[in-house]
Target: nicotinamidase
Amino acid sequence: EEVRGPSDALIIVDVLNDFCEGGALHVAGGDDIVPLCNALAARFEHVVYAQDWHTQGHDSFASSHEGKEPYGSYEAHYGEQTLWPDHCVQGSEGARFHPDLKVPAEATVVRKGFRQSIDSYSAFRDNDHRSGTGLADALRELGVR
Model:
């Protein structure tokens, strides 16, 4: 299997406990991606891991809006925002990478969704389309094109 060059990177996004089986916002079959991520990561010199990293009481949580339910929405300052169950709270077990995902101790990890009032679906920028997550800077620093 070909190993990618120094200007290439693999970005692994949100392979976190809360998005896998038994998590607060699990995706059916979410655990199934872990072996593929590990196999692909072995082929890259640079692997960057993106991690949802919400504050307690994040504005995207339904629990932060009286009378609102998960999967409803509200009008945020940047537009319509889906309301989610509490998930990937900073420092929680749900915010940790899946236990079978091989994340080296020296890995580059970019955290997203950490601003209290702005969610982040993209690993590159927050939902306001202005605030960056730091991923672009991390890739530049690694020499990734």
Notes: The chain has one domain: 9-124. Residues 33-41 form the longest helix (9 residues).
